[in-house]
Structures are given as structure tokens and as C-alpha cells.
Specification:
4 copies of one chain form a homotetramer. Chain A is of the alpha/beta class. The first copy, chain A, has 2 domains: 159 residues, Rossmann fold (3-Layer(aba) Sandwich), CATH 3.40.50.720; 161 residues, Dihydrodipicolinate Reductase, domain 2 (2-Layer Sandwich). Chain A is built from 11 helices and 14 strands. In chain A, the strands form 2 sheets. A 7-stranded parallel sheet of chain A has the order 3-2-1-4-5-7-6, with helices on one face. In chain A, a hairpin with a 5-residue loop joins β13 and β14. In chain A, α1 crosses α11. The longest helix of chain A has 16 residues. The two termini of chain A are 36 Å apart. The mean pLDDT of chain A is 97. The interface between B and D is medium-sized, with 18 and 18 residues. Chains A, B, C, D: Belongs to the NAGSA dehydrogenase family. Type 1 subfamily.
Chain lengths: 342, 342, 342, 342
């Protein structure tokens, strides 16, 4: 039987990506779309690429009758998200795509995001949404917190290695390259085509990016001790795709074998043959993750390169994967589309 | 029951696009993939974005047992295509994506393509593959000739108008802007990223582009007299998407009404509200066509802008739409995916 | 002896382009830079690519001592420009890059720009800044109005042909393709990299673009009768470069000969051999214009393709060329740099 | 008095970039242009963006009368370069842009490039062309070997720090992001616009890139011991610009102070204020280098980000800077142009 879903925050990129994915999903029906600032508009006006779909018009959150909804996706900015989710029915299943329920410690949340958390009581209930590692908890969760797109990429690289104890914990570096859609529809000069295309730059250098909060929390928990990595994001002139180049100490073959074992049977994770290197071109628009492990000419060093689509597997695809689990549907439903190439 | 298909010429862009589309098609199974120059390779090596699929390895055409195949897509270059198709079993259903069976008159073929046609006897049997206008013939056809991507775009603009007699026939101009994937994987300096990105140019100016052969044939047939249009293609630094700006004389409102009536009920054709203008951004990766009609400040002039994805609706998507019809499947199967945005 | 110049509106793209060009000009010194909203900032903060230059800090217009200035460039938005220029010393030489003094008839100005002109009395004195056609007037002008970038491109295509009477006047079409920097640093969703790259669209279709005011004024004056052309701009995902595809009726060879004769001796205008087609790649970052003339398979039709860099020859380069003339310097000083390729 | 120069290998990107730079140089005249495969052609045919220049036609190397030449630039592929240079007059000043004379040890050359060196006797005479560090030797050199573009970028990051002994030598990582023009006009599928744009990937991962030969040679010489760094290049969908993210152990403030001191007075090197991060957008088309130093949240770690234009400062600009020195001209002549932005 078809499940009814609502999308709150349907006028941004992650909301649009959810609609794209769900438009060919066999078991979901989009019953409500909310975007307070654009309430009253048709989706064909906001996103003409969805023109062929028979979608409900945009409404405000207050206008949704949640008693008819099986699950709500919340694709709002952080801080707004917690304020909205706090007021939703307590029995409603929710997949939140914001940063608001990723960090378990309210102090850590405040440190990275600057504000007191407005729904502290719900943080205990939230399950961290990195499906491959929290699958069982997600199946029975009411509230799932989608991971950051950089945070997801880095964890696909490092979690199996930290857990297996095959790499050093004090010299990990993730040099990350991120597509611009991760910044959303923000109107900033450096995101204009004229200023972004044909060049690139690092940002938040030196340990300032908020996704470090997730890395610290998850890696320290896995290792049973504090783990702090170096993480440098770079903004690239492409629209979709994150590539993380991970530098670790350890035996490259052991690193490779650990990855192969960890991801055996995972429908969306592809570990490439040893020594091959993935490309973001090959995952654009898809829910797949490609991982390559290479040794270095310097003994005892390995390089792990991981790619995924920040809007899909890094955000809306992951959210749908989690929703499938929460609703008892096939985990891969609506998500098996191949990447767009070229 | 699942139908078995083969793709001949699976190492090019249109072949890869066919696999992408068919990978989520409920009624088709890819039983054979041929590419003579890369026979023996796995598709994951040729197109790593298809790595997650369980596909047959590449073979030569000769190695395919066509008795097990319900329909073959032929995604070869023109001239090669006719030589290969000539040798295939006469009972095999074929969708050809090349230019070889588009032109009914062998003399016209030779004029535009330079060589004598090697399978003249089969030209009579070939049905022109512009689905929306040859649907019934395609359903019962054995051999369907996919249209050129520019030719498709221009015909979506002009066919209903010529047929209805609402525009002048002697001053039609199509100014077309084409994505680079239309040129295929050809290794030419002007197709290198360094030389193509960040700029654009016209080419084949003055009536030299081969797709004019299709325009002449189809428009003259529709009008019952010779129709010759002006057509200028431009090469743009994007990978997918054709935009045709059509300049016609006629009453803009009548032009609009004609388009709305002609495409009513078509699952893939979206005529925008009068005065709105489409964008290639909204059809990238999809099988949809968006058409906008606008009046001009000069009375008696109308502008019709049409966009589609050259690799999908302009080539492989159209081919699959035709194959669905030929095999008695739902015409839209595998083709309802929304565009990728952003 | 070095001339001192000021740039009013130095925090936009055309202001930055002026500084880039003047930075290697042998006869000019940048004595003052104004940008009211960013007064007090260093240029290295606003445009880090100018970091190596020893430039004055940004000030407000009021803070400039114009008695020390030989010529001011005014690179402000239209409407603001007329209000600022009205208050400047009446003896100051000014090159205005906005639309405010391009249209001689205040009624026509109001029709296209929507507001009453605030400096009507100065419009009579303003000289239209298309250097190659108003060179003598510019030499002795106090106030020069830079042309629109599309308007410049179209006039390079059509002025010699209209003046020579070698083309029909009632069926001229300019299909124009424009780089995004022409829209300036405006913060709009459709100018974001994520929404602009990888696609394109027409806009202001049907005779709605403001540069038509210039076309009407200039072409009608040249022809001695009213001339109204069709003009469709398209927004392309590149940063610099306009390409105008002009469709005219007339003898192609005569059209070509007229162009060659008209531009003989012009330092910045390159008429290509007959039948060759120019590319925006070849003029990016330069003050050069490339023009190609081609005949059509339809007798009596010619296609004229013109390319230039909208920020340079279409705006700031043209402005500097005019300033050179107004200051008695070599017209080409600071402007002979070759395009950037690749 | 004007010096006469020749460019051997004038049909590639570095040859074209040399012509672009020299076209506004006050003291150089291009007396001969060679490109064996395109001998007989005009430069306007090979590079239409140079159409406005009065250049000699392309000839073969043999056709050049070197007695009339003061200095030759050799912009050929490696291996070819050594074979050509070996036959040139022994008194001719030469700036080689290839890899052939960068490595002093013929065994190391063979290890990285695979072939025996054909001009071993000239390697002793060649001076390494990183101007800022070999200025005096270059002034009196006859043969200067231009550095690799990645090698230049990495050395601007690390040389002052290794020389001053302020960083650890055993844990240096350079994560480099490179524009595609560095690959030249090679006709390869992965360099096509359709396959390169909208995505990116690492390559030569694990210590396989040839520029490591230069790093090893120069850093070990500076340190007085063997230094081996980790270096991972990434191919980005832009045409110009290298960004190197350097991870080093050391006190960030000391690292910064060392950089400021090392580059004081250098006309082309801009060290940004502490904590600021450079962008390749700001050096595109220019000979400038921007360097940013940042501390990390992990004590004792610093990140140094360096950007330059691979074709200009990383190749042809560096070559011209060296030629200026060798000919007794102003070192900065022809090189002070600001970057192209946007």
C-alpha cells in the first residue's frame, strides 16, 4: 500500500531532489509540500523541471494535516528545523536533513552552530542517519538525523578503518573537494557563476568546518578515545559531487581488505579494485559511493579516495534510503538509478 | 514477460545512455552488448558509472546469438550502421540511432553523407522514428530510424505549425544551440575541455548541416510543396541540451493554440503557458520536451523556443520510446525520470 | 604626461575590468576609486586579483577632489549614474558606462527604463560611444555614453550594411548569445553557478530587451526611416563573450565586401575570410571584434556572426578606448592585449 | 634595442601563451615560429585569437636561421625537446619548457620518464628555472630548464620552510588540484569537455607523478638529506590554475613569518595576511602567485595554500621571466598584466 509523505522545505535543492527521486518510487505518494516563503505557488513555478508531475501546491507547514501523513522529510536550514520539528505531532515519523539532530551533546552543537538548541529533549531520540552503519536503529526510529554531506563522505572513508584498528588515529587528513550545490540556493557573490566557475579555493581551513563536529563525535565513539582529524574543504566549480582524498598511516593492502569486507553486500557502496581511483563523474545524480584504495611510494601510507553525490547519497538519497527502512519498504526503492554520464 | 535486447555500439554515449535508461526498466533485460573495438572488456572499465550493474561483457557483433534477442538497438556511426544492419537477421526488430535510414531518397542520402547507401533495399521498410508523429507506423515496424537530435528539436517546433498552415513557409529560421555530447566521443581539438569551455561558436553556417536533409524531407512532405528553412547550429559548452529558437511569421496566439492542441495528451511534451520561455536546465537527463511560444513587438511574428536533452529525447530516450511501442510495452516505461537539477 | 583618472563604481565587474586594463596603461594613473557601499575598504579585499597593485582605497563619490582628476569613468547602474553625474563638475570629462545617456529622446528612455530622466539637460551634450562610428565626436566630447554590450555587438554587424543599403531593412533578425557577466554582480537565483552552468535559455523574448532602444535609435538614424529588428538574447553558462548571429537578406558577397571596406584600418575589428566563422573563445579578455560573413543555401540570404568580449570591447575596453581619444592619447593604449586562450 | 626570439613548438598551449605575453612586451620581437607538423600554416589558422598580430608563418626548426636569433624558447614535449636542443647552435640562449633538463641525474631522469637521455652532456650546463630561487644562475645561464607546473607550485609552498628548518620533513603532504590545460592539446577521451566538465578525480595517486622527481631533487638538496613528500594531483574542470594544499607540521605563525620574509620584495609573489586563503580565480592569466598560511585546531600543524596559473607562472610566464633575465631586460617586462576576473 502506498505511503503518504510530506516534504517541509520543498523550495530548496534537497527538497527538489527528494521530489525527483520519489517521482519514480513505487511505494510513496507526495501528499503535501511546504515552503513558507513560497506558499501558494505551484511547483512548476519554483522548479520548472518538475512541470510534468502532478504535485500538490506549496503550503505553509501549519496548513498540513499531519494525521494523513506517514512520514515527513524536513529539508529546512538548521536552527529553523528544530523549531519546526518541535511542534510536529509526536507520533509522526520524521527524516530531518538539517544539522539539528546530528550532534548528541547540546554543548557541542552550540560550539559549532552558535545557538542554544531549541529541542534538546528530542536529541536523545534522534538516530544518526548514516544508513550503512545505523541500519537497525534507523528501522525502528521515529526521528532520523541526516548526516552532513562532507561528514558522510569522510565516514565512508574512515569508519571501517578506525573500527578495525588498521590505521593510526593521530595523523588522519581528509582533503575534501565539494560541489557548489552543497551551499544551497544562498545568494552570495562567491556562488555566482561569474565568480565560481573557472576556479576554486579552499575554505574553512584549519579545523573550522562544522562537519568536524560529526567527525569528532563518530570517530571518537568508534575508537573509544578522542580522535581529531584534519579536514580541509575546497569549493569546486561543479554542481554535484564530493571527492575526499584521505591520507592515513597503515598497510595499504590491509586497508583495502578491511574496506572490501566492510562493504560486502552493501547495495550502494562500490569498492574499486586495488589501486584504481574513482571519479565524481561516475556518481552524479545517483545514490552510489565509489571508493578507491591505493598504496604510496612511502611504506606504511595509504590513500583512500571516496566519491558520492552530495545532494543524493550525501543528503536526499540517504534520507529516502532511511525513510524506506522506517516505513518497512525495500531499502533501495527509488534509488537504483544510474548516474548521469556524460 | 521480460524482453531481451541487444545494444550494438555500446561504448559510445548513446549506447551508455540506453543502458542507463534500461537499468531501471521493468520489462527489458540487456542480453548482449557489442562494441567491436572494445570486445572483451567489462562495461565497468569502459563506463565506470555503470559499475553497479550486472551487465554482459562486450563482444563483437558476430558473437551475438540474435535468435535469443527480441530487439536490437544499433548505436553505431552512420555508414557503419547500414553495413552492420544489412547482415542482421531479417526478422529481428531494430531501432537504429544513426542517420542511415532517416532519408528515404538514396540520392538525398548521398548528397548529405557523401557515400552510396549500402542497404538501399531496406530504406523502404524503415519508419522515421519521431514517435509523436509516426506512432502507429512505429508500433508495427521492424526497422525504425531514430531522428537526428537537432532534427527532432526543430520538428517539435515546426511540424504542427506547418501542418496546420498557420505560418509562412518561406522565411522560417531555426537558430539552434547544441550541447557537445551530440558530437560523441570524437577526439578533436575543439571538443577538448580546454578549447570548448568558456566560449561558443556557430558551425555549419549557411545550410551545410546534415540534419537539413531531414528537415527538407519532412517539412516538404507535410506542406505538400518544397520547404527549405534556414538552420544555424551553435556549439555550446554544456554536455546535454539543445535549444532551438524558431522565428516564424504568423499570429502568435494562433501559433500557441496550434501547439497546445497538437501536443494535448502527449506524455513527454510540455507546452508552457503563453509567453513563458523554457530552459535546457529543466530537461537535462530526461525524456521531456519543453516548448514556449512568444509574440514579438513586430506584429505577425512569433518565436517558438524548444528544448530537449539531445542524448535522451533526442536520441536514446526516443529510441527506447520506440522500442517500447515495437515490443508492445507501455510507451513511457523507463522514461519517466525527472531531469537532474541542479 | 600622465593623466589622472577616477573610477566611480569601482566594486562591480566593469569597474574591476577598467582597473585591469589601466594597470598596464602607460599614460594613465588611477587617482581615486569610489564605491559608496564599500567605502573604506581596500581593493585587495573587494577584488583580490588586484592585490599586487598600489591602488587608492575606496571612498565615497563625495570624498573625491575632482579638481585633480582629468577624466572620470562612471561604472554605476543606470538611474544612479544620471543622479551622480548631474552633480559632478561641469568641466570634468566623463565616460559613462551605464545606459543613462545612450538614448537621445527622454520619452524613449522612459519607455525602456521606466523612470523619468533626472539629467535631461545633459543628454544633448552626450556623445554615443561606439568608437568606430563616432570617433570624431568622441575626441571633442566632454560626456561620452558607453553603448550596451549587446547593442555594440549588433551594431558592428549591421551598421555598415544599413548605411551601404545592401540589405533589406524589414526582416533583420539578431539571435544573440550572452555571457553571464553582463548581468553584473546581481544576487539572483538564476545567476548562481548551480542554476546557470550546464544549461541555457532565451530571455526577454519578443522585443522586450532594453538594448532595442539603442538599435531603434541608431539604425533608424542611419537608414533615414524607421527600422525595427527582431532581437532575442540568450543567457549562456560562460563568463565573457557575446556572439550575435545576424540573419539578413542581401547578396552575401556584397555584404562581405561592405564589411571589409567599412572596417579597413580599424585596429580592433577583424573581418574573417569569407565563409569563416568566429568564436568567442578568440576574443575573451581582449578588445577585439571578430566578424564572419557566410552565404546561405537559400539565395539572397546572408549570415553575419560577430563576437566580442562583453566586459572589454562591449563595456570597459570601449570606455578606455574613448577615454584615450578624449585625453589626446593613442587610441589603442592599454588595449592591445591578446585574448586569453585557452 | 629589441631582442629577436624564436619559439620552437608554437602550436601548443605553452607556445601560444608565450606569443600572448610577448605580443605586448616592449623589448622582444618574434622572429621565427616553428612547429614541424604545421609548418606552412599561418598562426591565425592555428590560433585564431592571435589573428590581429603580424606574426611569421610557421616553419620547421631546420628552416630557422638561428644566427639572427638572440634566444629560443623550446615548447616541445619532453624527449623531443632534448633531441632538438642537442642540434641547436651551442652559443644560442635557450629556455626549455619541457621536462628534459630539470633533473640533474640521468638515472633519475630515466626512472621517471622511461627513456635514456639523449643529451646527457648538456644537463650539467642547464640551470633549474625557478626564478625566485635561481635568479643569479639564470642571469648568466645559456640553457634554462623550466620547472613543471605542479613542481613550481609545490616549491613555492615548501622551499622557504625546508630551508629555514621550521617544518618536519617526514610528514609533508601536498594535495594538488590542477587545471586541464596542463595536459596540453592531447586528444584523450578523459580530456573531452563531455567527460571532464562537471566532475573531477585524483590521478597518479601514491607517488607516481613525474614531478616528484623535481620535488625529491630540490627538497633533498635544500635539506641536506633525503626528503620524500606525499603528492596527489587531481584533475579539475577548469582551464587554468593550480591550487596546492600543503599539510605540514610546525608552528603556524613561524611558518607564516618565514614565508613573509622569504618573499619580501618579490614582484610576483603575494603572501596573504595570516589566515586568509587564496583562490585560483585571482591569478588566472597572470604571472602572480598567491600564498595563504593558516594554523589548524590541532596544535603544531599548519596549512599552506598556494595558487598560480599553470600556463603562465607555471610555464610560459616563468619562461619569459627567465628570458628577460638572460637577455639583460627588466625581469618583469611583459608580465605585469593583472588576472582576468571574472
Amino acid at each position: 500500500m502506498t505511503k503518504k509523505i510530506a516534504i517541509i522545505g520543498a523550495s530548496g535543492y534537497t527538497g527538489a531532489e527528494l521530489i525527483r527521486l520519489i517521482s519514480t518510487h513505487p511505494g510513496l505518494e507526495i501528499a503535501a509540500l511546504a515552503a513558507n516563503s513560497k506558499a501558494g505557488m505551484r511547483m512548476a513555478q519554483v522548479f520548472p523541471f518538475l512541470r510534468h508531475l502532478d504535485l500538490p501546491d506549496l503550503v505553509t507547514v501549519d496548513q498540513i494535516d499531519f494525521s494523513q501523513i506517514d512520514l515527513a522529510f524536513c529539508a529546512l536550514p538548521h536552527k529553523t528545523s528544530q523549531e519546526v520539528i518541535r511542534e510536529l505531532p509526536k507520533s509522526l515519523k520524521i527524516v530531518d536533513l538539517s544539522a539539528d539532530f546530528r550532534l548528541r551533546d547540546p554543548e557541542v552543537y552550540k560550539q559549532w552552530y552558535g545557538n542554544d538548541h531549541a529541542a534538546v529533549e528530542m536529541q536523545g531520540e534522534a538516530v544518526y542517519g548514516l544508513t550503512e552503519f545505523y541500519r537497525d536503529e534507523i528501522k525502528s526510529a521515529r526521528l532520523v538525523a541526516g548526516t552532513g554531506c562532507n561528514a558522510a563522505t569522510g565516514q565512508f572513508t574512515l569508519r571501517p578503518l578506525i573500527e578495525a584498528g588498521v590505521i593510526g588515529l593521530d595523523d588522519i587528513i581528509l582533503d575534501m573537494k565539494c560541489a557548489v550545490s552543497g551551499a544551497g540556493r544562498s545568494l552570495k557573490e562567491n556562488l555566482l557563476h561569474a565568480e565560481l566557475s573557472e576556479g576554486y579555493n579552499a575554505y574553512a581551513v584549519g579545523g573550522k568546518h562544522r562537519h568536524l563536529g560529526e567527525f569528532d563525535q563518530e570517530f571518537s565513539k568508534l575508537a573509544g578515545r578522542e580522535v581529531k582529524i584534519q579536514f580541509t574543504p575546497h569549493l569546486l566549480p561543479v554542481n554535484r559531487g564530493i571527492l575526499s582524498t584521505g591520507y592515513v598511516s597503515g598497510d595499504a593492502q590491509e586497508v583495502y581488505d578491511t574496506m572490501v569486507a566492510a562493504y560486502a553486500g552493501e547495495p550502494f557502496i562500490q569498492v574499486l579494485p586495488f589501486g584504481e581511483v574513482p571519479s565524481t563523474h561516475d556518481v552524479r545524480g545517483s545514490n552510489f559511493v565509489h571508493i578507491g584504495v591505493t598504496g604510496d611510494r612511502i611504506a606504511g601510507r595509504a590513500i583512500v579516495v571516496t566519491v558520492l553525490d552530495n545532494l543524493c547519497k550525501g543528503s536526499s538519497g540517504q534520507a529516502l534510503q532511511n525513510a524506506n527502512l522506517m516505513l518497512g519498504l525495500d531499502e533501495t526503492a527509488g534509488l537504483m538509478g544510474a548516474a548521469l554520464f556524460p
